[in-house]
Amino acid sequence: MIASVRGPVRHIGLDRVVVEVGGVGMLVHTTPATASALHLGSETELSTTLVVREDSLTLFGFGSADERDIFEQVQTVSGVGPRIALAMLSVLAPDRLRAAVSGNDLATLTKVPGIGKKGAERIVLELRDKLGMPSGAAAADTAPAAGAAPAAAWRDQVAEALVGLGYSAKQADDAVGKVADTVDESADVSTRLRAALRELGPR
């Protein structure tokens, strides 16, 4: 198990970064909020987990050990794999997720791409006694904060993320257009992504 990586950031994508560790560039998949909080060339440390499959080794990284632990725990639910687990943390901060599970808030859980009503019910049933209670900041539907998104650049980033989460290009473009009219100009990419997901609603 690779529990963490530390080193200078060599590349930043919307949902992945490359961290140089001992001269080796480690590709780490992240949430948009985690990626957008990093800076090229700066030293960073990410809590990580390695997902092993027959044909791949995929490293996932998080800004905190709490996020990593939740990422691992939600995958104990039948039907929830790494992709959906990462989508959950892209849409909901850890305490917001805890609040939704403990409060049987299916509407919030179905905002996550790939989770329908039955999946949300299963998550609540299997995780209610495992995730614990929120620390008190869960009322705000926010993920880790990042810097403001550069003008216009956020549109392509959010649209790309939505397509990566399974929405069509048209759905992504429509949601981005609505967000452009309703979200404050100073908002960061992850805030805009969550707003776009709210516009799309449960699937």
Automatic annotation (TrEMBL):
Coiled coil: none
A molecular function (GO) term: ATP binding
Principal location: cytoplasm
Domain (Helix-hairpin-helix DNA-binding motif class): residue spans on this chain: 72-91, 107-126
Key words of the record: Cytoplasm, DNA damage, DNA recombination, DNA repair, DNA-binding
A Gene Ontology biological process term: DNA repair
Domain of life: Bacteria
Family membership: Belongs to the RuvA family.
HAMAP family given in the database record: DNA_HJ_migration_RuvA (MF_00031)
Function of the molecule: The RuvA-RuvB-RuvC complex processes Holliday junction (HJ) DNA during genetic recombination and DNA repair, while the RuvA-RuvB complex plays an important role in the rescue of blocked DNA replication forks via replication fork reversal (RFR). RuvA specifically binds to HJ cruciform DNA, conferring on it an open structure. The RuvB hexamer acts as an ATP-dependent pump, pulling dsDNA into and through the RuvAB complex. HJ branch migration allows RuvC to scan DNA until it finds its consensus sequence, where it cleaves and resolves the cruciform DNA.
Designated name of the protein: Holliday junction branch migration complex subunit RuvA
Gene: ruvA
